[in-house]
Amino acid sequence: MQRFKPVAGFLLTAAMALPGLQAAAATPAEIQNNLETAARAATPGFGGFSADRGQKFFSATHGKDWSCASCHTAAPANHGKHAKTGKDIAPIAPAANPQRFTDAAKAEKWFKRNCNDVLGRVCSAQEKGDVLAYLMSLAK
Question: In whole angstroms, what is the distance from residue 126 CA to residue 10 CA?
């Protein structure tokens, strides 16, 4: 058994180095920090994120029929329901659902998909950061 320990250690180290095999744990604040970096790069006069702007963005329609609230409800600490399929959606507010915004790649995937559904385009880092600021401001 002793001679297999170095090989097992090597294999574990190699597996951890491969993309997609390691956990991409994050916090909502870390994801927001990444969005801030992107927003500063995209907008020289970036003045920070706003929970108020995020709430307005979340609730408004943007040229298409849906808003974020169409599926996630006007109270994102509650369960929602997909407007088209009726599928249950767990609360999106991190205070009500601690699993939300704990994986940066997953958060980006859903922002991309949902922004396309609501806006017909990718959301800017400013828009994502404002929405996340709003969601992080909510209690259970």
Answer: 42
Q: Which residue has the tokens 């507010």?
A: 93
Residue 104 and residue 30: Cα distance in Å, rounded?
Answer: 9
| CA angle, 140 then 123 then 71, to 5° | 45
Token pair for 128: 């994502």
Residue with tokens 């909510």: 138
| Phi–psi pair at 80, nearest 5 degrees | -115, -175
Copy the structure tokens of residue 28.
């909502």
pLDDT grade, residue 73 (50/70/90)? very high
Residue 10 pLDDT > 70: no
Alpha-carbon distance of 101 to 128, in angstroms, equals 12
Q: Which amino acid, 87?
A: K
Cβ atoms of residues 34 and 101 within 8 Å: no
pLDDT digits (tens, 9 = 90+) for 92-131: 999 999 999 999 999 999 999 999 989 999 999 999 999 9
